[in-house]
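Structure tokens please, single chain.
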Amino acid sequence: MSTTTSRTPAAAKRTSSSSRFDSALGWSPGWGTNMVLRIVLCVLVFCIFALPFAAIISGAFDRNSSPTEITLLPKTFTLANFEAASQQGLWGYLLNSLVIAGGGLLLQMTVSVFAAYSLSRKKFRGQALLLLLVLMTMMLPEEVIGVPLSLVLGDLPLLGLSLRGSVLAVILPVGIWGFSIFIMSEFMKEIPAEIEEAARLDGVGEFRMLFTIILPLCKPALGVIGIFGFMMVWDQYLLPLIAANDPSDYTLTVALSVLRNDTTVGPGVLLAGAVMAMIPSLLVYLFLQRSMIRGITAGATKG
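Here you go.
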């Protein structure tokens, strides 16, 4: 009796994708020189990216961590570095960073969605010029706008208010980012106009059109701008520095930079703070990685 084996469509798709990838790199399937080269390259890439993380985590939990010695496992496991970090107020700075990152990301994604909807689904005079102006904001380094931004935050035009010392002084400036607007705008342009026309025949209004039809189709793009937007806000250094009135207003990024120049603070405390700063970014990426990968692959396969 003969038996036949059949592969599922998913398995066949994975095999086909792997074959195309191998062909693009000039590799042949099966064991041999090419396979050994692939393993060596994978191990090399893993070491380049993973070993620094392992060294940071190891030093954070090591009682006698040294900046001149890299170890992958702590010699003497301890939580004393995190206790010392707590005494330095790093948990409070972490809370400041989380509030600013959460509020800034929410505002940034909201502005990006509305701006992208207007730029991609509507036609008006000066549309291309407006998009160009939005993209030009990405070309200005922070050092160029640092002084004007400091003056504006100290004396808000027309209102005469000072935002320094408040989280709004950091949240409002990061609420508009040209990168997020551009990504959402380009993704929304690819949505077929027939979907929108059919919805309008059913009497769908603008807000319902955006939130129930257009936005659900943009989940991959939302994942992309969510990850990159969070990293953009989380890594801010100059803006929280000029917006602070007191050291208690610092974010974790600024606080670690200040503690780095303090000779009384050991390297283990700094590594513990680095771990605290690293965890939120990793969690955001793990939570949104599927949407991000779908967004990147969707943009790569269009056309």
